[in-house]
Amino acid sequence: MTAPATDPAPTSASDPTPAPGVDLSALAPPVALGPLDGRYRAVTAPLTNHLSEAALNRARLRVEVEWLIHLTDHRVLPGAPVLSQSEKAYLRGVVGSFAAAQVAELAQIEAQTRHDVKAVEYLLRSRLEAAADAPDLASADGGHTVLPRLGEIVHILCTSEDVNNLSYALTVHDAVTQVWLPAARGLVEDLATLARGHAETPMLARTHGQPATPTTLGKEVAVLARRLSRQVRRVEATQYLGKLNGATGTYGAHVVAVPGADWQAVSRSFVESLGLTWNPLTTQIESHDWQAELYSDVARFNRIAHNLATDMWTYISLGYFTQRLSAQGSTGSSTMPHKVNPIRFENAEANLELSCSLLDTLAATLVTSRLQRDLTDSTTQRNIGVALGHSLLAVDNLRRGLAGLDVDASRLAEDLDAAWEVLGEPVQQAMRAASVAGATGMADPYERLKELTRGRKVTPEGMRDLIRSLGLPDDVEARLLALSPATYTGLAVQLVDHLDGSTP
After folding, report:
1. Which of 330, 333, 357, 378 is catalytic?
2. CA torsion, points 255, 153, 77, 83, in degrees to nearest 10?
3. Hey, what's the signal peptide range on this chain (predicted)?
């Protein structure tokens, strides 16, 4: 007997039970799928103004408007009128007033066009038509506005990628320079302040995790600050490239439609008027190489910041830093009330890894486009904001984590005082130097110090007794006897001054 069509599909014991209650995907306003637009939105929201779909469409609208103005200002198209200042202000006001209503309107248009750039074109055409009813809007000769007659100039001689590549260059530039770079510079300055404040705070180094030649806390933090600063400067030097040259980069339609124009000059002047660097030689797409370079630089910054996060986590675990619970703003552990977890550094570590994975993918894939054009970059570039968002979130967590740290100088001193074996290095090197200078009895210094120090607990008295037994010249012996792990920091204090110099 056949089961009725209305019967539910058979289930097995392993089938999951459907989630009970309201369908959360149907709520209004919509519930965010990802954490950057949900849990962490307060930190990453500034990127929405530049790298969201709405921001991309606003940039497209800007490019279309400026292209229309550029063509008419420079009299590129025979018969096209020159616009009045009020007409140009009206057009630019279409971009400046782009907000929720326009976002919704574009969505409605795109539902019909099934093409995002075409939807922007139609939106602008509708605003040209509406200009007929705009008060106080006159043409350059004082007559009625000419804007309603300029519909055919909108998107003229452009392929979608002419608009898209310029729009992405503008939005990525603004996101990096206005949002990401200020945060990155802030992290560098936080580290520099910490380094300068503790330039003279001695600390036991731990190469391979083992007690090693002492340094200062400030010098070690300065290393990270300088490394990050160098990457910041690389990002600051980014060239944001753009092109406007048609369907295969040949200006084919341009020279047929308007053969008298110097199209390379027109293209260059337009791209540069947007504050971008003109790329003269492309296929249908601008090759995205500048994007790959930028994302690799940001990823390298991320990886150094990841090193910072793991080092700070380790210093906290060693007791070199204590965390202020109020500054962390959270419960340390749900079951162990004594704990203050280094959550800021752990959060940063994870988000840096997510950011790098996306940035690496962007850098690796955007440089390839089959023959003259494929659309793999279209969906890929929509994740630029996600990649930078995870980096921005990590930087925010690092800064918050650093702000909640206090240095435990007594713990640092305790570690140093328990590691007198580290003076085996300067003693044997002093013996070598004394031997070169003519002192006798300095043979096999490394082996002699190794016998005393390797795998053994060395006391201050034991180290000083050894120094006295070596027959060193008086001045060398006195210098070594005055040494302790806490004072054996070389030039660490002075090295912090390099934070104020130029980076090679």
Report:
1. 333
2. -150
3. none
Which residues partner with 452 through β-bridges? none
Is 498 an active-site residue?
no
Instruction: Copy the structure tokens of residue 25.
Output: 């995907």
Tokens coding 384: 């630029």
Eight-state DSSP code of residue 179: I
Helix H segments across 237-380?
A: 252-257, 263-273, 289-318, 325-328, 343-365, 376-380
Q: Is 435 a catalytic residue?
A: no
Are the CB atoms for 96 and 73 separated by under 8 Å?
no
The DSSP secondary-structure symbol of 106 reads H
Burial class (CB within 10 angstroms; exposed 0-12, middle 13-18, buried 19+) of 53: middle
Taking the C-alpha atoms of residue 241 and residue 340, their distance in angstroms, rounded to an integer, is 47
Omega before 35 cis (within 30°)?
A: no
Of all residues in the chain, the percent with pLDDT exceeding 90 is: 81
Q: Give me the amino acid identity at 384.
A: I
Q: Which residues contact 490 (CB under 8 A, 6 or more apart)?
A: 213, 215
How far, CA to CA in Å, does 53 sit from each of 41, 50, 240, 379? 16, 9, 20, 11
Q: Structure tokens of 20?
A: 């009970």
Taking the C-alpha atoms of residue 431 and residue 443, their distance in angstroms, rounded to an integer, is: 8
Domains annotated for the chain, with CATH where assigned, are 47-153 (1.10.275.10), 160-407 (1.20.200.10), 419-493 (1.10.40.30)
Could you tell me the two tokens for 379? 């969906």
Neighbours of 264 (CB within 10 A): 13
Instruction: Return the closest-CA partner of residue 417 out of 248, 165, 204, 245.
Output: 204
The SS3 call for residue 406 is strand
d(Cα 48, Cα 392) in Å, to the nearest integer? Answer: 12
Predicted local distance difference test score (pLDDT) of residue 87: 97
Q: Round the average pLDDT of the chain to a whole number and report it.
A: 92
- Cα gap 127→181, rounded to integer Å: 36
Q: Give the DSSP H/E element, type plus range, for residue 259.
A: none
Residue 343 identity (one-letter amino acid): I
Coil/strand/helix, residue 270 = helix
**pLDDT value of position 373:** 87
Catalytic residue among 208, 334, 410, 469: 208
> Does residue 52 surpass a pLDDT of 90?
yes
What is residue 278's three-state secondary structure? strand
**How does strand 210-216 pair with strand 277-278?**
unpaired
Alpha-carbon gap, residue 417 to 485, rounded angstroms: 7
Chain-centre distance of CA 222, in angstroms? 20
Q: Which long-range contacts (CB under 8 A, 24 or more apart) does 105-112 make?
A: 106/57
